[in-house]
Amino acid sequence: MRERSFILDRRDWVYLFGLLAPLTVYNLLLKAVRIASLPDEHGFLGSLALIRSDLLFNLGYALLWMGLFAVARRGFPRWMVLVLFHASAATVALITTAYHRFFLVTGSALDADTVLFFLSSPKEVGAVALSEVTLPLVIVVIISLAYAVFGPLTLVHLVFHGRTATAPGGGTVESPWLTFSGMALLAYALVSLSLLPGGGPAGASETFARDAFVNVALSEVKGSTAPLPPVNARKIRDGLPTKARLEPTAQAKQRNVVLIHLESTRARSVTPYNRDIRTTPFLNELSKKSLFAERAYTVVPHTTNALVAATCGIDPPDRSGTSSVGDDIPARCLPELLNEQGYKSVYFTSSVQTFERRPEVVKQMGYKEFYPVETMDTDGFQKANYFGYEDDVMLEPSRKWLKKNGDKPFIATYETITPHHQYLAPDKRYGRKQFAEDAVLNRYQNTVRYVDFFVKNLIEQYKEMRLYGSTIFVIYGDHGEAFGEHGRYQHDNVVWEEGLRIPMMIVDPSHPAQRIGKPVNQLDILPTVVDLLGYRISGGKYPGYSIFDLPKDRTLKFSCWYEKKCLASLKGASKYIYHFGDRSEELYDLSKDPLEQNNLAGEAPPEEFRERREELLRWYARVNAIYPP
User: Are 241 and 331 in contact (CB under 8 A)?
Assistant: First the structure.
C-alpha cells in the first residue's frame, strides 16, 4: 500500500520534484549569470526585480503539474501526463539554454521570430549557429535531456530502494478535479504575473526581465502587434525610383566605378576615424586624398540591407523584408543604370553565395556577372569565418576579369568578408598585432587590419593595369560591430554608434581631396557617384543626396535588423533611440558624448520625445510598406 501525503503520495512527490527542482535551479542559475553579465551593477533588490518573472513562472509551472498528477492517477491519463511532463520540461530547458547562449553571444533577448527564422533557414544560418555550439554546451544539453527522460524514475527507484520500479501513480485524492482546478487557477495567476512588466533597474529591458521561456512564448503572441501609423502603401510604392534613368550632362565622362564593401567595419576601428589605433595605415593615407566623410552611417546594420542602401539608393527593409529583395528591389540600382550607358558590371565576394539569396540579390541589382568564393581557387588561403575565405582570394579573379573587360567602362563591387564574426583573423600573410587586451576584440581589430592590406592590394592591381586614373573608388563599411559597449554584440540589433557609424571615402583621382563634415549615410552613395560621372537622374527621385549638395538641416534615420526592436534618428549632434517600449528611450549629444555614455533622456521635454518617436514610426511604416514580408 502506498504511503499518502498531502495531495500526492510520496512517490509522486519524489518523481515530480526530481525533475522540477533541478529544472528550476537550472533556469534561475542561468538568469543569475545573465544578470551578472549586464554592464551595470543592480544590487540585491535590482537583481530580485529582474528575477521575479522567473520565480513566478517556475512556481506556476510546478503547481500546474502538481494538479495534473493529482487528477491523472492511473491508466492512459497517467501515462499521457507523464509523457507531456517530460516533453514540456525538456522543451523549457532547451529554450532556456538557447535563450541564454543567444543572449551571451548577441546581448539581445531571443524571441519566437528569431527561433522561427533559424528553423526556417537552416542552410543560411546553420553555420552561424554551429559556430557557437561548444563541447561543454553539448555535454550540458545531453546530460539535461538524459536526466529529463530517465532521472525522476531513477530517483524514485533509489529513494524507495527499488520496491516498485514503475512510474508513480495510484492512491486517491478527495475531489481531485477540485484540487486540480484550484492549482490550475493559481498556476495561471502566477504565470500571468510573470508576464507583467518587470520594473527592473535602468538599462535592463522588459524582455530581459522576463523568464526566458515566457519571453519566447509571449513574443509570438505580443511581439508582432505593436501598431504603426497608417500609410498609403500604393502611393509610397508609386513614388519609388523604379523608372529612373541617367541623362548625361556637358560634364559627363565614362569612368569606371568600384564599390569596395567593407564587411562589419566600424569607424572607431579604422585609423582615419581613430588616431589612437593603427589598424589601417593605407586607408589613413588614402583618406587624405579622398572625398572623406567624417560622419558616415549605415541605415540598417546588416549586410544585404546595406547593399540595397548603397547600391540601389533606397531605404532597406528590416529582417522581415530582407528575403524579398532577391525577388524584387523597388528601385533601379546603380549597375542597372550604368548598364544602359554601355557599362559592364561584375560582383566579386569572398563569401559563400548561399546566404540570403546573394545570387538573386546581385541579379536584381543589375550586375551581369557574379563571382562568389565557390568559383575561386581557395588553395593556400585561410578561412576567415564560417562565411568565407580571406579577401585576397578575390585578387586573381579580379585580375583575370579586368584583363578581359577593362578596355571598356565598368562597375565592379568587391564584397569583403574577413571582419565578420567569428573573427578568425587570418595571419599567414600579414601576421597579427596587439591592439586590445580582450582576445575577441583583438582578433576583430586584426581583421580590420587585414582588409587594409586587401584594399591596398586591390588599388595596386588597378594601378598596375593602368586603370586607377580612370576609376572612382567608393570605400564604405556595411555596418559597425559591437563588443558590449552597450551590452550588445555583433551588429544586427546595435543601434548605437559602434553599430551604425562606418568609414566612407570616395577616391576620385580627377577630384581634389575634400572633407565632408555633415552627416551622410549609404543612401548618398548612388547620387554622389552619378554626380561625379557627370550624369543627372530623371524619371524618379532617390531619398539620398550627393555629398556636394547636402541639405542644411537633415535627419538621418536608422532601424535595427530585427523587426520592431529599435529605431534611431540623428539631427545634427542629437541622437535619439527608441526601443518600442522594451526599454527606456535614449538621447545623446554626440558633440560632447561620442561614445553615448550619458543618457540625457531625463532632461528632454516629453513633447520632443513624442515628436521624434512619431517621426521615426512614420518612416518605419513607410519602409515596411515598400517590401512584402
Answer: yes
Q: Which residues pair with 502 in a beta bridge?
A: 296
Range of the domain at 99: 10-222
Q: Is residue 574 part of a domain?
A: no
In angstroms, the CA 176 to CA 7 distance is: 8
Q: Which of 144, 149, 173 has the alpha carbon at shortest distance from 2?
A: 173
Cell of 297: 552611417
Q: What is the mean pLDDT of residues 468-487?
A: 95
User: What is the average per-residue pLDDT within 291-312?
Assistant: 97
Place of cell 581557387: 377
Is the domain of 277 the same as that of 193? no
Does a structural domain hold residue 115? yes
What count of residues does the chain have? 629
All three cell numbers of 208: 530581459
> Which CATH number belongs to the domain containing residue 349 in this structure?
3.40.720.10
* DSSP 3-state percent helix, strand, coil across the chain (nearest 5): 50, 15, 40
Asked whether the beta carbons of 271 and 288 are under 8 A apart, the reply is no
- Domain check: are 478 and 543 in the same one? yes
Selected residue with higher pLDDT from 2 and 97: 97
Per the listing, cell 478535479 goes with 177
Q: How far apart, in whole angstroms, are the C-alpha atoms of residue 98 and residue 584?
A: 26
b/e sequence 230-268, b meaning 16+ C-beta within 10 Å? ebeeeebeeebbeebbbeeeeeeebbbbbbbbbbbbbbb
What count of Cα atoms within 13 Å lies in the side-chain half-sphere of residue 454?
A: 29
Contact status, residue 621 vs residue 321, Cβ threshold 8 Å: no
Residue 82 CA to residue 157 CA, distance in Å, equals 16
Q: How far is CA 548 from CA 127, 420, 474, in A?
A: 43, 32, 15
Q: What is the pTM of this model?
A: 0.89
Look at residues 531, 550, 569 and tell me which one is the last residue of a structural domain: 550
More confident residue, 92 or 181: 92
SS3 assignment, position 520: strand
